[in-house]
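WARN no homologs supplied; continuing
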Amino acid sequence: MRRAYKFLLRPTSPQEQALREMLADHCSLYNAALQERRDAYRHTSKTKIRYEDQSAQLKEIRAFDPGRQGRWSFSSQQATLRRLNRAFEAFFRRVKGGQMPGYPRFKGTGHFDSVEFPRDGDGCRWDSIPHDARTRVRLQGVGHIRVHQHRPVRGRVKTISVKREGRRWFVIVVCGDVPAEPLAPTGSAVGIDLGVAHLLTTSEGEFVENPRHLASIAEELAAAQRHLATFPQRTRQRTKRHRAAARKVAKLCAKIRRQRLDRHHKTALKLVREHDVIACERLNIAGMTRAPASRPDVEQAGAFLPNGAAGKAGLNKSILDAGWGLFLGILADKAESAGRQVIPVDARDTSRTCPPSAGGCGHVARENRLTQARFECVACGFTANADHVGALNVLHRAGLARCPAA
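OK structure emitted
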């Protein structure tokens, strides 16, 4: 298995300055390579420049500018060029697929926050001593940086990345050949139904509350964003007050992200420890959170009919605040490490079907779900919580449900 470990870096002031310069120089390299591709396409009969062509120029670039580009790792600069190449490959793939293309854009210094080192020992070195506080990571041009290693790293170190988040610095160590740590079997299977009122409901009738991390500090975040928006465009990134306002917004967003990650990790770990098999819904979250299409008024040119966009926007925000996709990804990773099985099933009509595994008749109708929380079958009169019914049907579709008599 491949696993990524994220640790907090504790650089000294000179090292932090060197890290900022490293990000700035890699950002400059990225933007210069992007500009070269744009110019070649526009002015040279649409000539296509490949990654191999730009990588071959690195030796000349490093020799021409030894004070900036020449001081950093050659392989990390190649990784930055590959990053741009992936952006172009994704752009052309979306063009061929008829999707919104999204042409690669230039990166500002405040939006280029990571540098990757493709191989341990080539421009970087992970010097980890198990159960020792002297863990260091050595980066070319920066030196040995202290690492707050809060858990052991297993497997073979393959790539190392340095990332900036606000005023904090992190190192991300990706390891291969990580051994699995299977848990003792429990003989239990469970189905889960993800929701907004509750983060999830299990087929056993357990409800996990949705903490609504974004909603809890929405007013404070909105105030910080309004304050940031008061700065005119010409003064942005130039004044101390603007930088402080931007850090305030970033700090609140980072807090929400950390809270959501913490809750998802704890919830997923509890499920993995208690059940051998976990059935979940296969959700198209991008489609579920898509804005409704406009409805032109055929009787009045240039006018539009109500399409429920305001109400849908509130639901979309609640779905994204719950972080269903993030949770399912964490659950799958933890299940793989623990030797558990996650079975995704079709999510259609799970909350509108009378659950056969609980003594229901299996009738499917939109009218079965009276409200968000109440389910009442119009055919047999079976009543239950709608989210619990959804979890029971998820378990049944995975072929794991027990018979009603059991």
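The chain has a mean pLDDT of 90.
OK
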